[in-house]
Predict the structure.
Amino acid sequence: MKVSILATWEKRQDLWKSLSLYTTLLCTLIMASTKLHSLLLCAPLLMLASTSAYTPCPLLGPVFEPPSHLASDFSFQGALKSLESTLEKAGTTGHSHYGKWAASTNGFAVGIFDTSSSDQLFSYQFTSKQIKASRLGATVITSDSLFRIGSLSKLITAYLFLIEAGSGYWDCPVTDYVPELATAQHACSATSDPIGCIDWNDVTLGALASHMAGIPRDYSTPAELLDPLDGGEATAVEAGLPPVPSSDAPSCGLNFTDACSETQYLKGLSAEQPVFAPFTTPIYSNAGYELLAFALARIKGKSFPAMLEQSIFAKLGMRRSSYYNPNSTSNAIIPGSLKDNYWAAILGDETPDGGYFSTQSDLVKLGRSILASTLLKPALTRRWMKPVTFTSALNQGVGMPWEIWRVSNLTDHVFDLYTKAGDLPGYSSYLVLSPDYDVGFIVLVAGTDTTVVAEIISDVVANVIFPALETSARQQAQEKYAGKYVNTHCNSSMVLTTQAGVPGITVESWINNSTNMQLLLAGYEGGTSGYDIRLYPTGLKTSSQVAYRAIFESLDTVPDGGVFSPQCTTWETVDNRVYGNVGIDEVVFDLEGGKVTGVTPRAFRTTLKKTS
Ligand SMILES: *[C@@H]1O[C@H](CO)[C@@H](O)[C@H](O)[C@H]1NC(C)=O
Ligand SMILES: *[C@@H]1O[C@H](CO)[C@@H](O)[C@H](O)[C@H]1NC(C)=O
Ligand SMILES: *[C@@H]1O[C@H](CO)[C@@H](O)[C@H](O)[C@H]1NC(C)=O
Ligand SMILES: *[C@@H]1O[C@H](CO)[C@@H](O)[C@H](O)[C@H]1NC(C)=O
Ligand SMILES: *[C@@H]1O[C@H](CO)[C@@H](O)[C@H](O)[C@H]1NC(C)=O
Ligand SMILES: *[C@@H]1O[C@H](CO)[C@@H](O)[C@H](O)[C@H]1NC(C)=O
């Protein structure tokens, strides 16, 4: 019986497929020995037979070390070849697996990067017929073409805030730095009129950065129906809306050439009503980022555009990127006429939330800098790249201002993508970062259906690269770690491997001085069917050692699917069982010249040498 309990993964898979047979067999054997045990042991086992097959529950994060040498990785490069032809076909026809668009009027640029090289892993541009015929700016899209990036600007603004001021200000009320709002609060008190007055004292800088302030989306926006570009009041009245009292019309910002001053903006915004009380639910707000930029300028006593230029664009060599509208249209992608797009719109203080100009090459530098923590301390980057809140969608969270997508069907485990999208008429952008694979990509689109195209092209890229990255990471882990590790003196060994479709490094067998550890550990935890043991990287390493943690999952405890019945809670069990104050799940590998030479399950105070 023990032999089948301790079967390797493949055998176990088969085992689970024929679980009822297994259960029957086991129970028969147990019943044959003692009647009492049959009652105790067979009841849970029979329950198992009616639930879903065991699947490993990894910790959140990479299940293998991020793949390296992607530029020469055979399977990843194969995937990129297929990506190029898919994008070419999608660009030319306007058709893809994820939807359609007008091919003749939408051009795009795609750059994929990692942190190990300064070259892009992949760079592709599709120039639409509309851009080829453009009389303004460039007629071909390259990786150095200039686009407006819309709300992707917010991510750069948050990055600048962290670089300049750090995260210590997130809990400070905005009224500390923008006293005009404290004054507004006196005039209109949220305590006496919570529907009519914004509770500025409870709006923190962190709430602004994460769309949790519950404040209005904008003051005087292009979505204002009074905007002359939308036909203005006359058109609205014709459509059936009543005329607007002139005192309610925004005094600035209409038609987007007449940006509001800071004073006008603060006066206008603070006269609006709250959407929700602060910290109720995520409500996307451009105004929040305009206020965040005001606050940063006042905290530092410096001009916001100057800080942006010095601390990000100049530092990272983002030579084509700018806050202000460029003086020249050389290399500029301007789809259609200036009436069709926001190339020339002057956004004034709205710029930090949606107005920057940039290129594929420059945004690759930005994304790489964030992934590699070149301008922030690594711990601050890790803290920043976390959700602040969920949304009503199971797979979406919101950070500062990350739009976080939880991906569950591209690999065998859930992983999170930290992204920011942006739109302005004529332009859309998508920056996608994957800390787990240490890879990111940028998509820039110019044309008529840009929002849809940016989403679809991002989907196309993600669907090709993430399964390929998972395969490369697993193959590299197999090459580096798989094999037998032994201590010949006392019949101790550990056999490691990986399997397609299964996360982490599998501990196929583990014998310590002739004792089978899987059985022993199962015994400690009161289990009966043995343990599935897999190793996950912790990211802790030196040039000569790498630390992993083992996750022990009892094959006994299969979830039944209720709200509280454990589905995947291994994060709660790490470092639980200790021996002499060392977790029995601590596993450290020794490296020499990048090659693995041995493994130390630290609680056992013994090193097993790699044999082949
Ligand atoms: C935009 O607004 C400003 C001031 O409100 C006005 O002077 C200008 O003529 C307007 N431009 C257009 C194109 O409507
Ligand atoms: C445009 O030219 C002006 C005057 O030379 C300069 O001050 C400004 O920085 C330039 N703008 C950009 C975005 O380069
Ligand atoms: C993953 O799920 C998304 C959303 O449901 C779907 O569009 C996509 O095709 C799926 N991808 C795969 C590889 O199944
Ligand atoms: C593991 O093996 C070591 C000798 O290498 C021995 O000292 C130790 O007691 C063993 N531990 C268990 C739990 O069997
Ligand atoms: C291995 O276990 C045996 C008995 O099970 C014990 O006598 C021996 O000392 C152990 N070896 C080591 C190296 O601890
Ligand atoms: C080592 O231990 C395992 C597990 O107890 C046992 O099956 C195997 O026969 C032992 N090998 C030797 C050489 O003692």
In short: Residues 1-50 have pLDDT under 50 and may be disordered. The chain has 18 helices and 23 strands.
